[in-house]
Design a protein that fits this description.
The chain has about 220 residues and is an alpha/beta fold. The chain contains 9 helices and 5 strands; from the N terminus they run ααααβαβαβαβαβα. Strand 4, helix 8 and strand 5 form a beta-alpha-beta unit. The longest helix has 21 residues.
């Protein structure tokens, strides 16, 4: 992790919202969404998560840092928003029931918006029955879910099984800290919807670029 990310993490933990934004602007040479998300905010929040796991910071400290990180993402998206409509494919994003981490989902939502997708961000901790109802009603092309903690995996797998069978058989994307460490071969083979694991936002950006150019999709199990 870079010194820039460690400094940013310390500013977030100190509640120094404006200093954090100033620090980001000194590091970024342009409005580079991926650099902000992947090289600054994600490492900073991962570092903060490890401090919390080691009891070196309190839950209140972690919540404060998360709230400021949320504000920074919203502020960046407001300043760099575009009226480009693009292809208007649809994506629904949420955290599975019991999953309270949501910063990564917000970042992913912004990447989809960058490519002109119609986005419905349903937030963290969404019960499966409500996700299923929303998917059948809106019929998104893609459903994106996150998994940050290992004990959420049974819920995540059940969600994959159910949501891949909803109207339109959407592609299911899995992200979050646990995504690189799990496999969903059985769920991917059980229905017509494709299941794809995204290790980071740069992978998502590449996948969306290929989809936009009509190159095809990235199969996580190839």
């Amino acid at each position: 992790m870079s010194d820039h990310s460690i400094k940013l993490a310390n500013l977030l933990l100190s509640g120094e919202e404006q200093l954090a934004i100033t620090h980001i602007h000194t590091v970024l040479t342009e409005n580079d969404r991926l650099t902000l998300y992947e090289d600054l905010l994600t490492p900073a929040m991962t570092y903060i998560g490890k401090l919390w796991e080691r009891n070196e910071i309190t839950v209140a400290d972690e919540h404060l840092a998360t709230a400021i990180c949320d504000f920074i993402i919203s502020d960046f998206e407001f300043r760099s928003s575009s009226k480009e409509q693009g292809n208007r494919k649809k994506v629904m994003l949420f955290g599975v029931e019991g999953e309270e981490h949501y910063i990564g989902l917000k970042m992913a939502s912004a990447v989809f918006q960058e490519f002109g997708w119609s986005v419905r961000y349903l937030g963290p901790n969404l019960p499966l029955r409500h996700a299923e109802t929303a998917a059948n009603a809106w019929q998104p092309d893609v459903i994106a879910m996150s998994a940050a903690l290992s004990y959420r995996l049974p819920t995540l797998k059940k969600s994959v099984q159910v949501l891949s069978q909803t109207a339109g058989h959407p592609t299911v994307l899995i992200g979050g800290r646990m995504a690189p460490h799990v496999h969903f071969e059985e769920e991917a083979a059980s229905g017509p919807g494709q299941v794809i694991i995204m290790s980071n936002l740069r992978e998502l950006h590449r996948w969306l670029t290929f989809a936009q150019e009509g190159v095809g999709t990235i199969n996580a199990f190839s």
